[in-house]
Write a structure and sequence with these properties.
The structure is a homodimer of 311-residue chains. The first copy, chain A, is built from 10 helices and 12 strands. Chain A is α+β, with helices and mostly antiparallel strands and 311 residues long. The radius of gyration of chain A is 19 Å and the shape is globular.
């Protein structure tokens, strides 16, 4: 039986080209092109009842978020569309196009294939971006680097929870789940300064652990420093349970950046930016993961985030 | 209800960037990069009982064939792998890797996502190639251009038919179905000379019609000139029905080239090439499609090839 880790090990053994970056990153880097591919599966990455427009938006946004984390400028995309022949696809394309138009990602091609009637849709996008002079990987972090989060954490997970309780739920948290905003301008400003950078897609604790492990570090994270939106605070509160929920929720599409201690990203950001940026902790020496909040140390939850992969 | 044609019309309306070539081609062309994405669906593009190694091989080969038709040199690929957590995926990756290694296509990244237990697998690959100085599209053909086929036609369809009758079938026709050979060297030699070029993936009659329509032409094709392999001749014969079966079968991954009348590709091919190349007809003035064989005119079959798309 193939587990996630053996499958990834196999892929790493095959992907030996330097552009693959050892598959320790969310992107490949080929010359000055940043390449990424993300796939959404019906019932796994989105709810069958989600409006098709929002699924299209989300497919573009999750790929754009990978470009954002590397400071890349969108260049173009190829779509893999499975079609069951309903008007779902037309509405999906409308949302995809809206996100692409909003972020300067032209659709260049792809493939449209038929799907057996009852099969869940599988929707893939390959996005290409033009890299800046420096493209941070996941693995360049050093002990002592501060960990910063750009954007807010937990909104999407709270939105998904609301939808599971009531599929007619709406509001800013549901919007955050359905229509994440890739932080492209912010990534272009900050990624070149970062020792390591990635987007937070599977939960802050899980993604921070991935960055730390790729960098040969551990981390110290302060739950009380998490950037929480007003809507999240109103809906979920701000106690330890709420903050743990936010830190393990996933689908945030915030950016996680390891920045040298002396660097204050607030000073380098464009003035017109309205995105939160918060220091949530630091990278530490290998293998130590320490979570705390105002009340003291917090035991690590068993589940650090959302694992998309099979096991 | 969305039909194939309305979905394609929508996609064309969205893909206005020049690199998309109006989606009238199998690839996008971004600077000197040729980009293509092909997706295989279990039960649609391959049989659930096919050896996973051959599915991996085929996924790489069908994408490489698109690069071949444009005369491009392989650069790298991104994989979209849906995993159900069995050893199927490990075997699939072995075959994919073998094809990538054989043709110089390094795996650079991608995404691995979980799939609900009963869902058909959906496997996608984005392939990038470096273009030569001239990259023929589908749409550059002119009335009077001769239509040439490189490779043989019908083997794969005959192999699939044999597998449907007996899932233990084997031999060169089954191999042609399971392990198509992308004609990269031949494409690099001939594509720069062609007014129009594409690979034959969905049936010669259908793909020739697509080329002719994209070029504002019709075609005249001679069934008796079809390049048929010895194995196909032995298994299916060479009568009109066999030739119509070959010409509408699909999954050939031969190349279809429109070449100026005076050009004999046999003279420009590398001497060591062992691939058949045959003149099968010509492009004609708009809207006329004439099929013939030794016995005279042949009525166009209702089904010209294999339509992957839903309708």
């Amino acid at each position: 039986v193939s587990t996630e880790s053996t499958l990834l090990a196999t892929l790493r053994r095959l992907a030996t080209h330097p552009a693959a970056r050892g598959l320790a990153d969310d992107v490949a880097l080929l010359g000055d092109l940043v390449l990424t591919h993300d796939t959404l599966v019906e019932g796994v990455h989105y709810l069958a009842g989600d409006p098709p427009e929002s699924v299209g938006w989300k497919l573009a946004a999750v790929n754009l978020s990978d470009l954002a984390a590397k400071g890349a400028e969108p260049v173009g995309a190829l779509l893999s569309l499975t079609a069951r022949g309903t008007d779902w696809e037309e509405r999906f394309l409308r949302g995809l196009h809206e996100a692409c138009e909003s972020h300067g990602l032209p659709l260049l091609g792809g493939d449209t294939v038929a799907l057996p009637a009852a099969a869940p849709r599988v929707l893939g996008l390959t996005a290409l971006g033009r890299a800046g002079a420096i493209v941070p990987s996941r693995s360049g972090g050093c002990p002592g680097d501060r960990l910063w989060v750009a954007g807010t954490i937990g909104d999407s997970a709270a939105g998904l929870r609301a939808l599971r309780e009531d599929e007619g739920a709406s509001g800013p948290l549901v919007e955050a789940y359905r229509r994440p905003q890739p932080l492209l301008a912010l990534g272009q400003a900050l990624a070149p300064l970062a020792s390591a950078a990635m987007d937070v897609s599977d939960g802050l604790l899980l993604d921070a652990t991935r960055m730390a492990e790729a960098s040969g570090c551990g981390w110290r994270l302060d739950l009380s420093a998490l950037p929480l939106s007003p809507a999240f605070r109103a809906e979920c509160g701000t106690d330890r349970a709420a903050r743990l929920f936010a830190a393990t929720g996933g689908d945030d599409y915030a950016l996680l950046l390891a920045l040298p201690t002396e660097l204050d990203p607030g000073l380098t950001l464009p003035k017109e930016t309205s995105v939160n940026i918060a220091c949530v902790g630091e990278l530490t020496k290998n293998g130590v993961f320490q979570l705390a909040d105002d009340l003291g140390p917090v035991p690590l939850p068993e589940r650090l985030g959302y694992e998309h992969h099979s096991s």
